[in-house]
Design brief:
elongated, 56% helix, mainly alpha
Length: 113
């Protein structure tokens, strides 16, 4: 977690403003919350991994029913985040699709290829 992200997450959990927490909660308790929140992934932080595991399992089961023995890799289903150059809409859309569907979508060709 970034430096103060845990504080905003704690405020969200407790339904208070960050300023109220800092003013009213003892420093020792804030420190304990900080350590606890930073020790565990919470919320959707591992959602991409969970979705990838499910997609891989479905793919591998389907392969088993078809008789093919070519299991996929988890990395094939993880999103790959790429920066998109401004003004390159077609390439940007293809890269966005790749970030959602992972390596199952081929990379777009570079200009001039």
């Amino acid at each position: 977690m970034a430096d103060a992200d845990w504080l905003f997450e704690l405020a969200s959990i407790l339904g208070e403003r960050v300023g109220e927490l800092v003013e009213t909660m003892p420093a020792q308790e804030l420190l304990m919350w900080s350590r606890w929140l930073q020790s565990k992934p919470r919320g959707d932080k591992r959602g991409d991994w969970h979705a990838s595991m499910i997609a891989k399992a479905i793919h591998d089961i389907a392969l088993g029913f078809s008789g093919k023995q070519n299991p996929s890799r988890l990395e094939d289903y993880l999103p790959t985040w790429k920066l998109v150059e401004p003004g390159d809409d077609t390439r940007g859309m293809k890269l966005a699709a790749r970030s959602i569907f992972g390596n199952m979508v081929p990379l777009p060709k570079e200009a001039g290829q």
